[in-house]
Structure formats: C-alpha cells, structure tokens
Amino acid sequence: MQRFALLGALLAMSAGAQTSSPSLPSFEGQVVYQVMPDRFFDGDRGNDAGVNRDDLRAWHGGDLQGLTNKLGYIGQLGATAVWLTPIYRQQAGNTSGTSPYHGYWPADFRDVDPHFGTLADFAAFTKSAHGAGMKVVLDQVINHYGYAAAAVKVRPAWFNGEAECAATKNKDVDCSLAGLPDLKQSNPEVRELLLDNADFWRKQGVDAFRYDAIKHVEGPFLKELLTRDRVAGTWTLGEWYDADTGTVADWQQAGFDSLFLFSLQSALRGSLMGGQSLTRVAGVLSRQGELPRPGEVALFLDNHDLPRFAQGSLFEDQAQARTRYALRALMTLKGVPVVYQGTEIAMRGGADPDNRRDMRFESEWTPAEKAVFGAAQDAIAVRKASRALSVGDEKLLPVPLSLEDDLLLLTRQAGNERVLAAWHRGRARKSYSLRLSALGLKDADQTLTRSLFAGQDAKVSVGGGWLHLSLPPEDAAVFALE
Ligand SMILES: [Ca+2]
Ligand SMILES: [Ca+2]
C-alpha cells in the first residue's frame, strides 16, 4: 500500500514538473489585447482606397501604422501582448456585399494587404511592440483561401471540392466553411505552403499564433504544425468555436499551448451580464482539474465573432456597470485574459458586423466609458502586481448551497502569497458570514482588509472561525489573505 502511495506521489511530482517545464512556450501572466486592425485606428490616409466608414461591411481605413501609433494606449490599459486578426493580402473585391476588411479571406499568405500597409510597416509595428515589452500574436488562417483568391483557379488540386465533401465522414474538416475554398492539408504542396507560412511570420518577429477555425483542419497536419511551433518556441492558441473544458484539454494534450474557453465566455455572459445564477460559472471553473495547463487557457468576455458583452443588457448604464464587474472578475481567474478592443469601455454591438464598430479613443469617451476604462486598467494593474493573481493556483471554494446563486469564492495562491476573490451577484450591498471550516480555509485571525481594486467598497475580516464579507452589488472584489 505504502509503496504504491509513494509511487503515486512521485508520479504526481513528475507530472507537476512537466507542466511547469520551462521548455514549453508559455503566456501565463500575460494580458492579451485583441485588435481588428481595420476597425482600430487609421494612421495612414494614403492607403484608404475604397474606405466607407458608414458601411460596416466596407473597409474602414485602420492600419498597421495606426496600431503602432496606439501602442501607447494599449500599454496604458496594461496589456502585455497584442493579438491582431489577419493582415494578409486579401482577395480583391467583395463577396456577398462584404469586403475582406476582417482579414479572413486571404489571397497571399506572405504579404500584407495594402489597406493595412506593407511588410515594412509590420516589421515597424513588431519592433515597437517588442520595444514596449509587448508580445505579438498573429492570426493564422490554415483552413481556407478567400473566395476570389487566384489560387482557387490556378491550383484546383489544393482544395476539397463537392466530391470530397460528399465522400468524407468528417464533414467538419473536408467540407467548406461558409462556402470558403477549403484547403486539403494532406496535399504535400498545401502542407508545405502552410508550414512555411508559419516560418515566414516567425521570421517577421511574431511570438505566437492564433490559429483560426481548427475544428475544420486535418488533425495530423495540425499536430505536425504544432510540433514545429513548439520546437521554435512559438506559443499557440487555437480557435475551436464553442470549445468547452474537455475540448480544450484534448487539444492541450495534442500540442496546443492554449485554446479559447468558449464555455466560460458563455457562462460569464449569462451570469455576470445576464443576471443568471453564478452556478453556471462555478460549473465551468470546477472542471479546471481536467486541463493539462490551466494557466495557458485563453479567457475572454467577447470577441469579433460574438455579440459584444455589453450588448447583453438593454440598458447602457447597466451594461457599463456589469462590464466593469466582469472585467474585474476576469482578472481574478487563472488563465490568459484576452480583452477585445472596446470591451474596456463597454462598447455595444450585436452580431457580426455590428460587433466590429470602429474603436473610439479617450477624447471621444463619455464619463461613464472613462469609468469603465479606469476599472479595467486598475484590475489589470492589480493582477500584474500579484503573483498569486497572475500565475498562482486557483481553488474554487464550496459556498453553502443557499448562497451559491449569488456568491462565488475562489483563492489564488503562489508561494506564500494568497488572495481571495469574491464575486457577488446580489442586487444590493450585502454582508456574509461563512464558517472557515466549511470553506476549507484554515482558521487564522485577520483584521479588516479592503479590496485590492481601487475605489471599491468591499471588505473582509477573519476571526473566531468565521469569514466575514461585505460586498457591493454586482461586482467582483479581491482581498489579500494573511
Ligand atoms: Ca488607412
Ligand atoms: Ca477544412
């Protein structure tokens, strides 16, 4: 018995050592800011051919020069990495009334679209970002070309056609996504093209890839791609639309460093913005033990494919207050937070393309938007200042059944540093007294402590076997524990 227990402990130790191996690319501790360059900032009017800012389906003029100009803004928010949606040279012209402003309709994977600038502009951006201590995450498309790309006619053998789609058992992979020309990754030329694309952008100074639509890409090819990225030290973030914890775990096993945890996004939207029970969020967080590398998983409130987080309330003021709540809550979680441009000011917008309205900057903000930004900036700063919050272990505490709709408690710990996060759904300010033993916390007296988030009236004290909390309505607080 004893020998087996010892063996188990040794195995657990070696597994722990493996997951924290310094040889694996890691983004733990980073805060990523997502930019859609066409909709961010126009730094060069000279490349604005065909721009029409009154049409959400047209080019809007944002570019790499504009992104470089605004790195100071991103740094002020506190982000440490920038993810750009694709910047490749796009197909000429529109399809179904939409221009390729979003970057997902490539015609040439090794060039920058003239609307965004040039390869030299990309090099200048990367250099400035690195100079400011930021990492660059580039969106990579590996599933398809744009509808009107020349390659579709020149190289028909590279693509899955109707026959392949009809014959396959794997419709997700071998049939076209939204009618897009679907690349056959098992074709040797396609395989080489895509592997070399990754090397090409690595040479431009890219630190990480966000791989688009991985659900629709051949598995053996993906694994080969990931192996090469890992050898090169490139961090990889996969987009599997609607991924839950199980899917993320599977792909981390298969070689991705990270995936977006869509199930958490949906729970955050329902609970924090929609006012539903916090048990939805707790349900997702309780599965964290399934993840090989929980600290790498990408956590987000919204992105360019989902309705804006703030769109979840009919009322703008409520949406702003709840976005502030959600940004604070997000910054208490283990993982890699990703903030989509505009979420830091609670921008509204429905489904695509309404979720891609032009970014607005400081001089155009209302006082309420300034307040949301201030809370986001503060929450990120608090996270970065705390090893426990940025890279510590996360433990969900068992809240009494009668309170679990309204209260979510978790601790984060790194070394001796420990913090307690308290999320509160209640519509009114409320005090809670909870037995430490029931929460699984050690009994230790602690004098009254206020939330680490600035300007937030939230308090905790510990004494006589009880944890006492005083929490404002619909907000997330975080406290240092002694
Ligand atoms: Ca421009
Ligand atoms: Ca495919």
Brief overview, please?
33% of the residues lie in helices and 20% in strands. The protein is built from 16 helices and 20 strands. InterPro entries: Alpha_amylase (IPR006046), GH (IPR017853), GH13_cat_dom (IPR006047).
Give a quick set of tags describing it.
2 domains, 482 residues, binds calcium ion, TIM Barrel, Alpha-amylase, hydrolase, alpha/beta, 16 helices, carbohydrate metabolism, 20 strands, Alpha_amylase, single chain, 4-stranded antiparallel beta sheet, disordered N terminus, Immunoglobulin-like, GH13_cat_dom, globular, 33% helix, 8-stranded parallel beta sheet
Structure description:
Helix 8 runs parallel beside helix 9 (219-232), helix 11 packs antiparallel against helix 12 and helix 13 runs parallel beside helix 14 (367-385). By secondary structure, this protein is an alpha/beta fold. The strands form 5 sheets. The chain has an 8-stranded parallel beta sheet. It has a 4-stranded antiparallel beta sheet with strand order 13-14-15-20. It has a 4-stranded antiparallel beta sheet with strand order 16-19-18-17. The chain has 2 domains: 24-391, TIM Barrel (Alpha-Beta Barrel); 393-481, Immunoglobulin-like, CATH 2.60.40.1180. 33% of the residues lie in helices and 20% in strands. One calcium ion is lined by residues 143, 173, 182, 216-217.
